[in-house]
Fold:
Amino acid sequence: MDAQGRGRDEGIDPADQWVLNPDTGDYELRLTPSSGRSSASSGSGRGASDARTPGPRRGRGPVTPPEDDRAAVPGQRGGRRGSGGGRGDRDEGRKPGDRDEGRGAGGRAAPPAAGRRKAKPKKSRKKKALVWTGGVLAFLLVGTGTAGYLVYQHFNGNITSVSTDGAGTGGFSKDRAINVLVIGTDKRTGAGNEGYGDAGSVGHADTNILFHVSKDRTNATALSIPRDLITDIPECPTAMEDGSEKDIPATTGGRFNTSLGQSDRTPSCTMRTVTELTGITPDHFMVADFNAVKSLTTAVDGVDVCLAKDIDDKDSHLKLSKGEHTLQGEQALAFLRTRHSVGFGSDLSRIEIQQQFLGSLMRKLKSNDTLTSPTKMWSLAEAATKALTVDDKIADINQLRKLGMELASVDPKNITFTTVPVLDNPNDKATVILDESKAPQVFSMMREDVSFTAVEKQEKAAAKAAADAKLKGEMADPADVRVDVFNGGAPAGSAQNALDWLQNEEGVLKSTNKANAPQDVKKTQLVYAPNQADQARRLADLMGLSASALKPTTTDAGEMDPMVLTLGPDFKTAGSPLTAPQKAPEDIQRVEADKAVCAK
Structure:
């Protein structure tokens, strides 16, 4: 960027103009020059006592983006210093005597004073650009942010939010995996969208992606949920626009897309439906409409796509020749709505080209061309905050920035797009049903934070877990296994379900249903005595228990004493292993975000 036009020295990196405010914990704009040359030219020669760190900006209204000066940092004031070091209104919020750490007379770097921290080594230009942009646009599935916090009031005023109604976790945190539900609605509101038909529709959950980011932030999985999947939609307590509360009744065997819009359902109901389906409770949701697609793709100057054949779709109005194209605005929306001219002409084929499109968008947003362009970042932040609806837990630029910083380190090569494994519905060819042989495996991998990509760190962790879980020693005969089964947070009836399976299918006849446990557990666990180790090995082998689920005591048990098996929330049904698989099913649909795939 050109710092000279802003009253700054040439060659200043945008990230270098921000300092950490110890009072707020946030990075803020450094309004003093990085060196002493500007102050020297003013004739005042600012000394060490006048090198101040800006405090929080106060009393500012919404900031208007620059119109003509495209080299300017959006929202930054551009006035030069007057003679004598006068700074106009840029000193608001500063305290007399505040100083820039490590600055000596004339603005030159000085050795740290006694008791002060040494300055941190400078980050690389690329890393600084990521820090500078680490905010609002993180929720575009890519972990890239924007400088929304530079103009907090302006962008904060753009945000539209809806209550989670208690359907989420309460918010993401740094010490665990993050799950964000991204919903694309087919609601036709907004300029230019009337011509798509069904103009009066309240909208559906038309495109649904559960974006899971691993606890260690090395990888992510974007799971598409087909809109025509037949599933149960739970009862949804919902806050209405007029302030009233409404309990929307459950629906058995309905289309997934009816979890939004229909019967006054809000995104919180889609969250509950995802939890019911996958066993994963989303932290947050974000909703995009047609205008979001058009404005966001325009803000990045288009998204690159590849076609393996000519496309002429009369429904989406997309007409493109075979080969590579850069799409934005109406054309990008038409591409994402296309299904009759690609694959088998189904919604599942449309999901595949949507995933290819989003992968390309991720690569575009991660590129230096985007990250180092203040104009593009402003446009993206403006488009995103106006076009997207978010949940009330992140309805604040600062919260979005924090979320963005958590996601920013995920490399596109370690982001896997996949789709819930489904089968054609034998009763209705227009819908699909869950593939019970594969879908539970996919859901389990996401719940247990197992990577779908070959991440070295994940592979090492998986190898260690496999080694730890390997049970050594003799196993007792199933008929000699004695165990009491408790329900400690599993679905109702689980203890009896497990007991029936153990006795009738596996021959563990010395087992007893003890109903509810004295207290719930986070995960299924088996408590056993040292002299019951052979029984524990057998039961663990039968049920697929991990090494971490086995809890040995320190003293031997009596000959007739049973082990104690407490079923936790991870128990779904008897016979289904409780340890997550370390590898996805071979033949599920999947693609990594760093791979450019041509739509067929």
